[in-house]
Amino acid sequence: MAENILKRLVNNSQVAIDDGTYEIDANLDKSSKDLTQIIKNNPHPTLLTEIKFASPSLGKIRTLTDPASIAKQMIAGGSKALSVLTQPNLFHGSPEYFMKVRDAVDVPLLMKDIMIENIQIDAAEKMGADYILLIQSLFDQGFLKEIEEFIEYAHKKELKILLEVHTKQEFHNALKTKADLIGINNRNLDTLEINLKTTEIVLDGYEKQRLILSESGIETVDDIQYLKKCGADAFLVGSSIMKSDNIEEQVRKLVSAY
Predict the structure, then answer these.
(1) pLDDT surpassing 60 at residue 147
(2) Could you say which of 83, 185, 186, 214 is catalytic?
(3) Over 90: is that where the pLDDT of 69 sits?
(4) What is the CATH number of the domain that holds 248?
(5) Nearest to residue 227, comparing CAs of 212, 238, 239?
(6) Is 215 among the residues known to form the active site?
(7) Can you list the alpha helix ranges (DSSP code H) found in 28-110?
(8) Which residues pair with 50 in a beta bridge?
(9) What count of other Cβ atoms lies within 10 Å of the Cβ of residue 26?
(10) Is 228 considered catalytic here?
(11) pLDDT digit string (tens) for 28-62?
(12) Residue 71 and residue 62 in contact, taking contact as beta carbons nearer than 8 Å
């Protein structure tokens, strides 16, 4: 099962690359704000809220509407950074949506995609992304080679890395890299099931050295308070906000968790 989903994600990116999705003619500026500084100095939960209209687990999440308007509502509610899906297959994302958001707001932006080739990193730079996502299991399971080469290439482009893990072993491997942020995905990519205890299990016994983001399945104030106790410094929240009738209010509620 694991291989099937991961393989499907990698194949989707290959199709998008072959289709010319990442051939971007742009030169947009990054944010003037630094996400790591925001996380360190923010007395409230630092939310990285996600603009996505569909996902493999949920199918369609929200009718396609103007991503820039959604971004502004999220920031008005107190979101400090945004994740924008650029993967067209399964996620209904696109680089065009990303660039619309980049033009509209000055907060750190994560290009959320399944990164498998440098052309996607080049696209991130041209679109004004601050962060790109790498998934540790793709390297650990042999789908991709040499994580350090990806990280080094991105850093040369002045892009920062959110490296996503799901298990203690992946976390251990991720800590050896020069990734700027480590994300713990509460979703098991083998089964697509979510368990918030994943963050607790992965961080159990960990002596704090790196900033940790908890991702997936975060819906309530209680969830944020629990994950903070487990050792998470920031929170990536997508579906529960995108499904909300009032995006700004939903973000505000979560930001008031502490």
Answers:
(1) yes
(2) 185
(3) yes
(4) 3.20.20.70
(5) 212
(6) yes
(7) 35-41, 67-77, 95-104
(8) 83
(9) 15
(10) no
(11) 999 999 999 999 999 999 999 999 877 666 667 66
(12) no
Catalytic residue among 79, 137, 164, 170: 164
| 185 assigned to active site | yes
Q: Of 30, 100, 112, 160, which residue is the catalytic one?
A: 112
In terms of DSSP H, where are the helices of 113-146? 118-127, 136-140
Half-sphere exposure of residue 215: CA atoms within 13 angstroms, side-chain side: 23
Half-sphere exposure of 116 (CA within 13 A, CB side): 20
Is 164 a known active-site residue? yes
Domain region containing 202? 2-255
- Could you confirm whether 219 is annotated as catalytic? no
Q: Which amino acid is at 232?
A: A
What SS3 state is found at 183? strand
**Comparing C-alpha atoms, which of 189, 244, 245 is closest to residue 218?**
244
Domain count, the chain: 1
Say which DSSP state 45 is in: -
249 near 73, Cβ under 8 Å?
A: no
Distance of CA 194 to the CA centre of its chain: 16
Is 216 among the residues known to form the active site? yes
Could you tell me whether strands 54-55 and 59-60 are parallel, antiparallel, or unpaired per DSSP bridges? antiparallel
Active-site pick, 13, 31, 83, 216: 216
Q: How far apart are CA 122 and CA 2, in angstroms?
A: 29
Choice among 12, 30, 31, 52 that is catalytic: 52
Neighbouring CB atoms inside 10 A of 6's CB total 18
pLDDT digits (tens, 9 = 90+) for 152-189: 999 999 999 999 999 999 999 999 999 999 999 999 98
What 8-state DSSP symbol labels residue 93?
A: -
Asked if 149 is an active-site residue, the reply is no
State the Rg of the chain over Cα: 17
